[in-house]
Amino acid sequence: MASRLTQARNRVVDRMVNAPRDTDERALRRAVAGKTVLVTGASFGLGEATARTLARHGAIVLAVARTAERLDELVAAIEAEGGKAYAYPADLSDFDSIGPLADKMIAEHGGIDIVINNAGKSMRRSLDLQYDRFHDFTRMVNVNYLGPVRLLLAVLPHMRERGSGQIVNVSTIGVRIPPGPRWGVYQSTKGAFDIWLRSIAPEIKVDGIDVSTIYMTLIYTRMSAPTPSMRKLPGMSAKEASGLVTRAIIGREREITPWWVTPAQATDAVARGAVTWGMGILHRNSSDTASARGEAVR
Ligand SMILES: NC(=O)c1ccc[n+]([C@@H]2O[C@H](COP(=O)([O-])OP(=O)(O)OC[C@H]3O[C@@H](n4cnc5c(N)ncnc54)[C@H](OP(=O)(O)O)[C@@H]3O)[C@@H](O)[C@H]2O)c1
User: Fold this and answer.
1) In this structure, what CATH number is given to the domain that contains residue 78?
2) Ligand 1: residues within 6 Å at CB?
3) Fewer CB atoms < 10 Å away: N or C end of the chain?
4) Which helix (H) or strand (E) holds 112?
5) Which structural domain range is residue 261 located in?
6) Ligand 1 center from residue 4 Cα (angstroms)
7) 84-89 β-sheet, strand order
8) Percent of the chain's residues with pLDDT above 90
9) Angle at 117 between CA 116 and CA 118, to 5 degrees
10) How many domains does the chain have?
11) Does residue 1 fall inside a structural domain?
12) DSSP at 110
């Protein structure tokens, strides 16, 4: 067990690095009890932790991801605690199946109140390794951008007709700070969805739908696990990070961003040359992981 000193140090680092979370149980229950919440990427990591928390506070969770067995286990665990959840196994990059999936969920539950756009794929790989890997780009754009767009195109008309709803997007800090080497395909695909969603936000706000974007910092999940250097950086557990999703739901905030993003953006604006030079040094002094060198992306 960590000593008190270690715990205190971890708390300070957490406050310095991550945006504050909201764990007000009563406020969360008021915000989600009886609401139908669609969580994409609910089979692992942040999506799974979020689904569990929301169900525990009375939400009816619609869990979407590819790994059906994991969704079944999640539903069973939620039901065992007296909550309500339904599994909808689906591949978000199978665009033709998403419209019918959304129609099915809406028909079976009478509508969707909140969408947590959480499913995603990350990739850290040098350009040198990508000349023969155009499929890296198509796979990532499909799951991080086009799949979520396809889903919202199917869900939003119904939400707008009902005159209420919320879209919570789990984005990454990488789309707000100066882009780092090796993360190009991940950051650009997450950035594309972020910009699209922010563009449509004023159009759907008039129909009572709020958009909240979380610019997420490091979470220790299977996504960050293949990059050993990440383990040395301060991050959150999936459960801790779910406190940012619940904060977005409770406060319906437009964005959740750690404080240090603004100085990072300002530095990039006034000294892009120096920032690019620094990124070059970072690139030369780091390397691709074993998985980036060979492993297929699932
Ligand atoms: N981990 C971090 O450090 C970090 C930092 C910033 C932002 N984020 C963002 O946080 C979100 C959650 O990431 P995580 O760390 O929890 O990763 P994770 O543990 O790998 O979970 C990703 C989830 O997305 C689902 N998914 C992936 N491809 C899919 C597809 N084609 N169709 C449907 N579902 C799919 C996965 O389920 P299946 O494999 O079962 O389909 C899984 O449930 C992502 O959007 C990520 O970009 C993460």
Assistant:
1) 3.40.50.720
2) 40-47, 65-67, 70, 91-93, 118-122, 143, 170, 172, 216, 218-219, 221-224, 238
3) N
4) none
5) 20-294
6) 33
7) 84-89, 60-65, 36-40, 114-117, 165-172, 209-216, 255-256
8) 89
9) 100
10) 1
11) no
12) S
Pocket test for ligand 1, best of 39, 52, 66 (most atoms within 8 A of CB): 66
CA dihedral 194, 196, 197, 198 (to 10 degrees): 80
Q: How far is the CA of 37 from the CAs of 31, 32, 47, 113, 165, in angstroms?
A: 11, 8, 12, 6, 10
Q: Which of 38, 39, 44 to mutate to test the pocket of ligand 1 (most atoms within 8 A of CB)?
A: 44
Ligand 1: centre distance to CA 16 (Å) = 25
pLDDT tens sequence across 80-119: 999 999 999 999 999 999 999 999 999 999 999 999 999 9
**Considering only CA atoms, which of 80, 31, 32, 90 is closest in space to residue 60?**
32
For residue 62, being part of any structural domain is answered with yes
The tens digit of pLDDT for each residue in 226-240 reads 888 888 899 999 999
